[in-house]
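TA notes, week 10

Several of you asked for a full example with nothing omitted. So below is the full record: C-alpha cells for the whole chain, then the designed sequence directly under it. When grading your own attempts, check the secondary structure regions first.
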C-alpha cells in the first residue's frame, strides 16, 4: 500500500510537470532595440523568411515594441522555479532564456508562461571589428557553413542588394547561397571576395562589379539574407549560377534549373 501511494504521488508529479511544458506552438516575442529578424530567428531556431511569412511582413524591417509570432516551446512556471533551473532543465543558456522573454531580472511567479529558446541558438551580437585592425576577425558559429569576416558579410550583402533589389526575400538568400556554394566548390576561388571579384575569360562573373553597383550600401533585408546564406540557408539546394530570365544566352539556359523566383533563374553547374 505504501509503495502504491508513493507511485501514485510520483505519477501525479510527473503529470503536472508534463502539463507545465508545452509542445512547440505559436508564442509571442516583443522586439527590443538591436533585434533583427535574423537574430530572432537564431534565438528560436527559424529563419527570416519564415518569420516574415508568419507575421505577414513585406520586408525584414522591425521596430522595438513590435510583437511577433514565433514558434517555440513554452513553460509554465511552478512554485520553487528559478530562471537558472529552467534554463538548466531545458539545456539552454540562461542569457538566451532571458532574451527570449525580455527578462533581465530574476522575478518570476507560478503560472507565468515563458518562451523556451532553441538549445542551438547562437550569439545575436554581431562581431565587432576594432577600428585599428586591418584584418577582420574570422567568425565561427555552430551553424556557419564557412568562416567569414565582417567585411565578407558587407561585400556579400552589397552583391545581394545589387543583384536582387526589389526581388522577393528568398531570391536574396539564393544569391548569397550561390556565392557560398562557389566558395565550397573546387572549381571556383576559395573566398567570398575572390568569388565575387573573379574574372573568367577577361569578364567579371558578377555584373555589379563591372557597373559599380557593388559599391552601393546594402539594405537591412540584404544584410539579413547574407547572414542566412552564410549560416547555411540555400533555397537553391546547390546552384552555382543565376541570371535574368530575359537573357538570350543559350549557355546559361543549357544549365539545369534549380529554382525560379520572379524573373531570376538559379541553375546548377551541368
Amino acid at each position: 500500500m505504501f509503495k502504491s501511494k508513493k507511485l501514485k504521488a510520483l505519477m501525479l508529479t510527473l503529470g503536472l510537470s508534463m502539463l507545465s511544458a508545452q509542445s512547440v506552438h505559436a508564442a509571442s516575442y516583443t522586439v527590443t532595440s538591436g533585434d533583427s529578424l535574423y537574430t530572432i530567428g537564431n534565438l528560436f531556431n527559424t529563419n527570416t523568411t519564415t518569420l516574415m511569412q508568419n507575421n505577414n511582413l513585406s520586408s525584414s524591417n522591425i521596430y522595438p515594441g513590435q510583437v511577433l509570432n514565433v514558434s517555440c516551446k513554452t513553460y509554465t512556471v511552478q512554485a520553487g522555479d528559478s530562471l537558472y533551473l529552467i534554463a538548466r532543465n531545458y539545456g539552454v543558456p540562461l542569457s538566451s532564456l532571458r532574451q527570449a522573454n525580455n527578462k533581465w531580472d530574476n522575478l518570476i511567479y507560478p503560472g507565468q508562461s515563458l518562451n523556451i529558446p532553441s538549445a542551438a541558438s547562437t550569439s545575436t551580437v554581431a562581431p565587432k571589428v576594432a577600428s585599428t585592425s586591418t584584418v577582420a576577425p574570422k567568425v565561427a558559429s555552430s551553424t556557419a557553413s564557412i568562416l567569414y569576416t565582417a567585411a565578407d558579410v558587407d561585400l556579400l550583402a552589397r552583391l545581394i542588394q545589387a543583384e536582387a533589389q526589389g526581388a522577393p526575400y528568398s531570391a536574396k538568400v539564393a544569391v548569397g547561397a550561390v556565392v557560398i556554394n562557389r566558395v565550397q566548390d573546387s572549381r571556383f576561388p576559395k573566398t567570398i571576395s575572390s568569388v565575387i571579384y573573379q574574372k573568367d575569360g577577361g569578364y567579371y562573373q558578377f555584373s555589379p562589379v563591372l557597373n559599380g553597383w557593388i559599391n552601393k550600401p546594402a539594405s537591412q533585408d540584404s544584410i539579413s539574407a547574407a547572414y542566412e546564406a552564410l549560416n547555411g540557408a540555400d533555397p537553391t539546394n546547390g546552384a552555382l549560377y543565376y541570371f535574368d530570365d530575359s537573357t538570350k544566352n543559350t549557355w546559361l539556359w543549357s544549365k539545369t534549373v534549380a529554382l525560379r523566383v520572379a524573373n531570376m533563374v538559379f541553375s546548377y553547374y551541368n
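The radius of gyration is 23 Å. Use that as a sanity check on your answer.
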